[in-house]
Specification:
The protein is α+β, with helices and mostly antiparallel strands and about 170 residues long. The chain has a single domain, classed as Archease, Possible Chaperone, Chain: A, domain 1 (3-Layer(bab) Sandwich). It is built from 3 helices and 10 strands. The strands form 3 sheets. Strands 3, 4, 8, 9 and 10 form a 5-stranded antiparallel sheet that branches. The radius of gyration is 15 Å and the shape is globular. The two termini are about 25 Å apart. About 35% of the residues are buried.
Length: about 170
């Protein structure tokens, strides 16, 4: 049920003004016996692909069903990076820190904004929401290597990352 709530396949497409546009969404692999899983997220812009990627991380790590109603509480997330993949890595780390504390008390994540820094890098911010009851999971995974970002005119922006359980 949790996966159905958040998961919108990255292959889903919308028709807008006669053009095929990739809908923001994500896919995730199951955890391997070695404790490794991958996520892929797509979106038409940086904000939507970052949000889809963070929702993939949340869906992968927090496995209890979400609270059906908005609990009205939120924990901030923020990140910076020299490029999109670096920004995503920093946002994922901040989200994982929130998951380490709140665990299944989180049921959604949103990216409010992304800005370019003076040096050409990026800063992004948003929040993870839910009941914020401190129900920490036994072990929070970490990024394995660096995420990758690619852009294709027909597919939008894609982020890929691998996570590993301790």
């Amino acid at each position: 049920m949790f996966n159905q709530f958040f998961h919108r396949s990255h292959e889903a497409e919308l028709m807008l003004d006669g053009e095929d546009i990739v809908a923001p969404g994500f896919s995730k692999s199951p955890w391997t016996p070695e404790g490794i899983a991958t996520i892929s997220a797509v979106g038409q812009d940086m904000r939507s692909v970052l949000e889809a990627g963070l929702r993939a991380v949340l869906a992968l790590v927090v496995t209890t069903p979400p609270t059906p109603l908005n609990a009205g509480r939120a924990a901030p997330i923020r990140g910076e990076g020299d490029e999109l993949a670096g920004l995503f890595a920093d946002l994922v780390q901040d989200l994982l820190d929130q998951i380490e504390y709140f665990g299944s008390g989180l049921n959604d994540v949103a990216v409010d904004g992304v800005l370019r820094r003076d040096d050409g890098g990026y800063v992004g911010w948003g929040y993870a929401s839910g009941t914020l009851g401190a129900v920490s999971p036994a072990a929070v995974p970490h990024l394995l290597g660096s995420p990758t970002a690619s852009e294709d005119a027909s597919q939008g922006i894609e982020l890929r990352a691998t996570l590993q359980r301790p």
